[in-house]
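Objective 1b. Sequence-to-structure analysis of Mercuric resistance operon regulatory protein.
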Amino acid sequence: MTDMTIGKVADVVGVGVETIRFYERRKLIEQPSRPREGGYRIYSDATVKRLHFIRRAQELGFSLKEIAELLELRDADAPRADASNVQQRAMAKLRDVDQKIDQLRQIRQGLAALVDRCPGQGPLRCCSIFEALEQNAVPASRPTVSEEIGMQTIRLSIGGMHCHGCEEIVRHVLEQQTGVKGCSVSHESGEARVAVDESEISDEQLAEAVRGAGYSANIMNIPE
């Protein structure tokens, strides 16, 4: 593999150009110097390998902060670092994944019970699923936005997300904003739902923060 421009690197790694620039701003990779004679910045094989490392770590569920710590251990000048340091971080991530799996199992059990009780035919007033939802009988992993005073949900339509790594970038950007209490991001639907304290941040400020990370963002109306 020869040295490549940012566009070629993006194709090889499977990300957008703006994602690479975001990694540069986050100091996860170094931005190459521009040639004195002019032309495009050239990325080395080592940088491409580092990008593959970042992407794979994201796919395994590591946050950008955690990836930065792993990269610090990976660098040759990391003092007194050995395999146990990496193993400890991987074990912590594994415990986190197991906890999320347990939560999903509980949600699945609740949904399965609702489906089993639903007759699957007849008028909606006979639907046991609607009845259970109205009675708050379905387990939830966290309170809904409407349950918190002064909170509202903002929906953003986001363009340029291609993978789970993009989701992680957008989620990180949103969660860093003052007044944001939580969010969910999907590259498949191209949408983010953000729980905010409306006295601290506006929908346009959220959209602008996402645009600053290299993605397009438009405000969507919340259905009544």
